[in-house]
Structures are given as structure tokens and as C-alpha cells.
Amino acid sequence: GAGVSQSPSNKVTEKGKDVELRCDPISGHTALYWYRQSLGQGLEFLIYFQGNSAPDKSGLPSDRFSAERTGGSVSTLTIQRTQQEDSAVYLCAVGQGTYEQYFGPGTRLTVT
Amino acid sequence: GQNIDQPTEMTATEGAIVQINCTYQTSGFNGLFWYQQHAGEAPTFLSYNVLDGLEEKGRFSSFLSRSKGYSYLLLKELQMKDSASYLCAVTPGARGAGSYQLTFGKGTKLSVIP
Q: What is the DSSP pairing of strand B9-13 with strand B108-113?
């Protein structure tokens, strides 16, 4: 998607390992969202960052999930002690604080 | 809670018109979105409705009735490239400053056939 890249594009990990997923927006996007899309499910909101405000973590499914955004730009989503149910496509979306959100290409996570 | 319903699959013929419906029940409402998602790709923004009525944008139109909790996406002059999933999403209201976090339906997979 325009204005945001994600890495890696694919990640295969063993159950119990930690993973880090990266979202790299172009400058000027003050709002940043993480969603995940599991097979057969709709996109599920995880966390929201806006400028220097405290993030909205209300969508994180468990305390194994955490995210940070450094310098108002790059964001990292960390999943500790991965489980098979964590397998999904993790999507980052950015915006200017208006309703439009631009999605990145996503990271496909597979936990074996 | 949030509940968004849309048909799982639809099939339509090239050149025809198709209407994809979406109903929602949410604890708050600050707008309804439609996104297009081709297989293996990121969702791309199609439309945003916050007031009742029809918004037209080229071959695509989106309608909203807030009192009925209902929206539809209308695609005209269907082309093969319109084969994709169409995602209905609602933003329930600002959580914190300017949040438009989206609650998505499961998507409607549209197949356009010759």
C-alpha cells in the first residue's frame, strides 16, 4: 500500500518462539494501526498509535502481544511465546488522523 | 459489542451490476467503510459514509442508512478485475484523540464471470 512497508513479508516460526514484525511508514502519517487477518475471519483491530498520545491497546488478544512506535515513525509488533492460533496475516495501516487508512502489504506469520 | 454481517460469496456477470449488502450493530458509530482486497494483497480504501444517503464514485457507489444499520456497495459495469473480497467496516467512535479503529465484517468474495 501507498506510504507503508512491512517486514518480513513472510515469517515461519516454531511454537514458543518470539517474533517481531515491523511497520515502516513514510513520514507525516501520525496515526498507525495494527490489525490481523486470520483465515476465514475479518480483520481484527489490535492497537492504535497517534502522535505522542498513549496507545490504545484495547484490541491486543493477550499479554503475549505488545507493540511500540519509536519516534512517531517505525512500529514493531512483538509476539512472545507464539502459539499456533497466532498464525495470521498482520497488517499495519497508517493515516493522517482522518478516516482514511492505507494498509501495508502485511506479514504472513505461520507458527508450526 | 460489534457485529457486522455481509454475504460470504457472490457471483456476477461481466458488464452487470452487483449490490453487496452489509448490516451492522455497534455500540457506537462514526462512519462506515468499504475496502477492496484482492487475494494476497492489502485492503484498499473504496468509500466512507457517515451521513445517510448515496455516495457515488465512478463505477462504485455506497449507500448508508444509519437508522436501519444498513449499507450497500453497488458496482456497475462489472469488470473481471473487480473479482476480489469486499470488506465492510465500521468505526465505532473516537477512542482517544482521532482514532478511527475499524471493526470489519468477514468480507464478501465476489467472482466476476464472463
A: parallel
